[in-house]
Amino acid sequence: MAYNEFAYFYDEFNGEADYDALYAHIREKLEAHGIRDGIVADLGCGTGELTLMLTQAGYDMIGIDQSEEMLCVVRDKAEQLGLSGKLLLLRQDLLKLDLYGTIRAAVSTFDTFNHIPDLDTAIANAGFFMEKGGVFLFDMNTPYKHQNVLGDNEFTFEEEDASCIWRNHYDAENRRVEITVDIDYHETAEHFHEQFYEYTYDLDTIRTALEKHGFALESVCDGETFGPLTEESQRYFFCAVKQYTQLEG
Fold first, then answer.
1. pLDDT by residue (tens digit) across 65-77?
2. Single pTM value for the model
3. What is the top-level taxon of the source organism (predicted)?
């Protein structure tokens, strides 16, 4: 999943996201584990809102995304903020992650890991480059959201420059949501169509993958309120701590 054409409208269509609350929660978790600086990787950084906030906070950020279009948006934002040269951007598939050294922490938000069909390998890769005591902070959409909120529903977004129709189909047999996005530009009458999947993972599957690859799941909360999980929570937020370096493992 690359979010190609959609990259340029992602922030507009994701306008209800509370980045300030997300950033505050992540900073709190990082600092609680003594991580106030050093190298932090944003896995699936998208348009870089969180990446840039953490850069401004003094972290040495690596923004990683498979979409060159998304990374172009991040570069433009970094230049406008005077942050060019203060972060590293890499175009990589998270299933083939290859960093240049160890990291103190990794973050991954807005259900990036739901887009990955092989969760085990993605978590293994995140852990491979992490120092002992490093923290992995990430969110994922819950099975409840896939089945009851996305389901077979359709959402329409209207903006000044374009309109977007987001269609979902929940495939219970394969535990995934098929998503199609159609974008129409008002001025040029251009039309773009993209299709991708979100895969459904339950808590036990996620916990097992984390523990298999050297993480201890310290906490999981509601990824929107950051309070306790409920039966109708639409997003998990995980805090997992690496128990050993890869060489020790």
1. 998 988 999 999 9
2. 0.91
3. Bacteria
